[in-house]
């Protein structure tokens, strides 16, 4: 099982639009414009997907939710997923601060522009704990 970071562009798909359209337990499919190089892995059913807005291009960065991958269609570069809890909470109060920013930087490495990155296995526990701590109100303040 793998974890993936899907980066959204605030100019192309605003956080406000994300808040309006993405709801837990709905099935979605999005195209993957550019998958970061370096990983030969592809998303598989049951993998975890996290949604992230970078600070550049807008004023509302952070981790906005997570989902379960339902299907990857390699020919079309389409990713099917279902958002799960606590996505509805995160889209209203995204996880952002020094820890979130540093984690996103570690995941994206030197390539900041793109759509999809594989999250290295050693960073997955920090990602999960950061999100659950943020939602639970135990995350470090900015």
Order of helices and strands: EHEEEEHHEH
CA-based shape: globular
Q: Percentage of helical residues?
A: 25-40%
Specify the CATH class: Alpha Beta
Structural class: alpha+beta
The end-to-end distance, rounded to whole angstroms, is 31 Å
Stretches where pLDDT falls below 50 for ≥5 residues?
none
Notes on the structure:
With 142 residues, this protein is α+β, with helices and mostly antiparallel strands. It has one domain (3-136): Roll (ph1033 like fold), CATH 3.10.590. The protein is built from 4 helices and 6 strands; from the N terminus they run βαββββααβα. The chain has a 6-stranded mixed β-sheet with strand order 2-5-4-3-1-6. The chain starts with a strand and ends in a 6-residue tail after the last helix. The mean pLDDT is 90.
